[in-house]
Write a structure and sequence with these properties.
The two termini are about 25 Å apart. The strands form 8 sheets. A 5-stranded mixed β-sheet has the order 15-22-19-20-17. The protein has a 4-stranded antiparallel β-sheet with strand order 2-8-5-6. It has a 3-stranded mixed β-sheet with strand order 4-3-7. Helix content is about 40%, strand content about 20%. The mean pLDDT is about 95. It is globular, with a radius of gyration of 26 Å. By secondary structure, the chain is of the alpha+beta class. Among the domains are: about 5-155, Alpha-Beta Complex (Adenine-n6-DNA-methyltransferase TaqI, Chain A, domain 2); about 265-400, Adenine-n6-DNA-methyltransferase TaqI, Chain A, domain 2 (Alpha-Beta Complex), CATH 3.90.220.20. The protein contains 16 helices and 23 strands.
Length: about 450
């Protein structure tokens, strides 16, 4: 640590250190929608609160849990089960509450800059210090008293702000990229829905030609009848679509398009796990090995790397070997529904169905087809301990095969959106690696602020 820096404890710079309560133990209840409720799994390994993994409570329950009502800039620190995940509470999730597995550190703004304290507690050395004090019972537990006594460095307030600003600039850029990726994915999904679920271009062409409109999309047709220019699709692209509908097992579909089992349109393969008892399959491995757990941690549907790697001998133990770049990957159990496309060759375990798109359907179409048909896919699942969709049950699911010209047009438009999404994801990985490199050096005083600022300026 910088020689002139003081040392203090979490308790000395906090207004309070407390934890939440399970709502049902005080007569409260969970609801489908309401006040956000943060659980351990809501906090990611990289220090964010995943809004998709929040539970919810009603206002009455929140009143019962008044001790743990969260405020902006509270720092959450997981203390049961998984020890040491840290998050800074943003205004965007408020009102919110939490449970007994999550500690709440409320910084004293006169003693410490909140975002600086967040980064200090995110430092691996603090997490390691916490792990050395864990009590093992049914599950690992870290007491509030031990959290209060964690030693932390305390540079001057201006230096705290400067360190938080440097690291925060990287995190803010990462979050901006993530928001852009959510927008890009939503744009591509909206395009897929318009073309291949609502059949908007075909509806417009049918109206122009005076051809019949199927009852199920009559309301959609009325919209375009009243707003003929609403689709805003170039005439050249519009001409690639037919101008009438035909019946099929999926109902009315555009004329000339076909319905086939998804297994006839893509190559569906699975994976396996090489024996972990044989070092030759794992030690020194450099080949990415993908599991549903890896997919659960993705911020965007792009696989750039995996937690574990296997050797070439390990790859040979898996029937699907290495999957080519651009394969659509679906977690088939624990749970069903994670989706991604790999940007590096990967091998997969038995919890993933891989769709190699070497047939008529481009991978971006298959990705959004899978996403749009997730309820159908889950409905085909079996299993007693947990739901699982087998390749045998997956392959017969009927899928729509549009014309080649329409698929080419979609692949071009969706491909541009996806490529930007990949670039943003790569940028996030680079920035996160830089942040994780700078954080311990800045927190310890090994690297001083002016030098770190130059490094960040070069990257941004």
């Amino acid at each position: 640590m910088g020689a002139e820096w003081q040392s203090t404890t979490v308790g000395d710079v906090a207004i309070r250190v407390t934890k939440g309560t399970t709502p049902t133990t005080v007569g409260g209840r969970f609801v489908d929608q309401g006040i956000n409720f943060v659980k351990v799994e809501s906090i990611t390994n990289d220090g964010r609160i995943d809004i998709d993994k929040l539970a919810h409570i009603d206002e009455g329950t929140n009143d019962l849990l008044s001790r743990s009502v969260l405020k902006q800039n509270d720092i959450l620190f997981t203390i049961a089960g998984t020890i040491g995940r840290v998050a800074l509470v943003p205004r965007s999730i408020l009102p919110a509450n939490t449970n007994q597995a999550v500690a709440i550190v409320r910084p004293n703004p006169k003693a410490v800059f909140p975002r600086f304290l967040y980064y200090v507690l995110s430092d691996d050395r603090r997490v390691h210090q916490a792990h050395t004090r864990v009590v093992q019972s049914v599950q690992a537990n870290f007491s509030l008293g031990e959290l209060r006594s964690l030693e932390i460095p305390l540079p001057s307030f201006p230096e705290q702000r400067a360190i938080a600003h440097i690291l925060g600039t990287l995190d803010d850029k990462i979050e901006l990229n993530r928001q852009m990726n959510r927008t890009l994915e939503a744009m591509a999904q909206a395009l897929f829905k318009s073309w291949f679920i609502d059949f908007d271009p075909v509806v417009v062409n049918a109206l122009r030609a005076g051809n019949p409109i199927p009852e199920k999309i009559a309301q959609r047709a009325a919209h375009y009848r009243d707003n003929p220019d609403a689709l805003r699709l170039p005439e050249e692209t519009l001409r690639q679509f037919p101008d009438r509908f035909q019946d099929s097992e999926l109902g009315a579909i555009p004329e000339g398009w076909e319905v086939k089992p998804i297994g006839d349109l893509v190559k569906c393969v699975g994976g396996a796990t090489p024996s972990t008892k044989k070092p030759e399959f794992w030690e020194g491995g450099t080949n990415p090995f993908l599991t549903p757990k890896d997919m659960a941690s993705l911020d965007s549907p792009v696989v750039l790397d995996t937690e574990r790697h296997i050797t070439d001998a390990g790859v040979e133990k898996i029937s699907s070997k290495k999957l080519p770049i651009g394969t659509v990957l679906l977690s088939s159990r624990a749970p069903i529904g994670y989706l991604a496309i790999n940007e590096v060759p990967v091998s997969v375990n038995q919890g993933i169905i891989a769709m190699i798109c070497d047939g008529p359907l481009p991978n971006h179409y298959v990705f959004f087809w899978t996403k749009s048909n997730m309820d159908v896919i889950k409905g085909k699942a079996g299993g007693t301990t947990f739901a699982e969709i087998s390749k045998k049950n997956f392959r017969p699911i009927p899928a729509l095969q549009p014309s080649e010209k329409v698929l080419d047009a979609f692949a071009c438009m969706a491909g541009l959106l996806y490529q930007q999404l990949v670039e943003n994801t790569v940028s996030c990985a680079t920035l996160a690696k830089l942040r994780d490199t700078l954080l311990p050096k800045l927190i310890s005083g090994e690297l001083r602020v002016p030098d770190a600022e130059k490094v960040v300026e070069d990257v941004l």
